[in-house]
Design brief:
about 300 residues, alpha/beta, 7-stranded mixed sheet, 7 strands, about 40% helix
């Protein structure tokens, strides 16, 4: 079981960001930090090592470990809406979008990709700071199938889109979080950044739109301390979003972003039976025993 410390402080940051309408701002308090120079050094080193024999062996090891983590984390996960994939050519590469709420929620998407039985490899767009993590998590972040997201304009303008295109052209999937920063166990879909849809439109990739519903389990199952309970995930696979050949990259990026947000908003409102607003409530944090319940 992975421990998530300092949750009350993180949730307080979520409340503050909501009050400030900063829907894509970082809330975690112990993430690694690095300079632009350190970021590019680590990213260049990551790509260099991936092409070595040792790097390929470590990649196989990391993927094997994460397969076990995926199985362990998703024994109760449900996946609904698989019929929506019928519109997608099974040989085609695609970008998957989902809400970003937990360090391990990408295992839900990985389980979904396994369920498609298309033998796709899942690549994940990961913040450059994750390359600075230590221990087992650091090993995985530096050796799994990821595409680091750096801050350099040159990198974002050339190397990054080339890496995205390479994966898509090989018929594989890429998971991108358009909300950018993770908000721990936050149930609501947040307004998106357009970058995800710009790159999708640029490489002519469809969007596999997903939304993860989080249900509190009826019995107590501690996840970090007695303030956080484990939850059940229900992955909703929503209609696939295709770029329009009659629109420019810019026009497609806005149109695809708008449709994806609307689909996730609709999925949220259907799953929870309430309208989507960004007023904070303790129920917004799945599994959290808020202050009113800790007495």
């Amino acid at each position: 079981m992975i421990i998530f410390p300092n949750r009350d402080a993180v949730i307080e940051n979520i409340k503050q960001n909501l009050a400030n309408q900063d829907y894509n701002k970082k809330v975690e308090i112990d993430d690694p930090h690095m300079t632009s120079e350190e970021s590019m050094r680590r990213i260049n080193e990551y790509f260099r090592k991936r092409n070595t024999l040792l790097g390929k062996v470590k990649n196989i090891c990391a993927r094997t470990i994460y397969q076990a983590v995926t199985w362990a984390e998703n024994t109760n996960t449900q996946i609904v809406g698989m019929d929506n994939l019928k519109a997608l050519d099974p040989k085609q590469g695609a970008i998957i979008t989902s809400n970003h709420f937990n360090p391990l929620e990408n295992t839900i998407i990985r389980r979904f990709v396994q369920r498609t039985k298309t033998h796709k490899r899942l690549f994940i767009i990961s913040q450059d700071t994750n390359l600075g993590m230590k221990g087992l998590v650091g090993f995985l972040m530096n050796n799994l199938d990821i595409i680091p997201l750096g801050k350099s304009i040159n990198y974002l303008g050339k190397t990054f889109p080339d890496a995205v295109k390479h994966v898509i052209d090989k018929g594989n999937y890429i998971l991108i979080y358009p909300e950018e920063e993770m908000w721990f166990n936050y149930r609501k879909p947040r307004p998106f950044k357009r970058g995800t849809y710009y790159y999708a439109a640029k490489v002519n990739a469809p969007i596999i739109s997903c939304f993860v519903e989080l249900r509190d389990l009826p019995s107590f199952e501690p996840n970090s301390d007695d303030k956080i309970h484990r939850v059940q995930a229900i992955l909703h696979v929503l209609p696939v979003i295709f770029p329009d050949s009659n629109k420019s990259v810019k026009e497609n990026s806005y149109a695809m972003m708008k449709q994806d947000y609307q689909q996730k908003k609709d999925a949220y409102e259907k799953a929870y039976g309430k309208s989507l607003t960004y007023d904070f409530s303790p129920e917004d944090i799945a599994g959290w025993v808020g202050p009113d319940k800790q007495k």
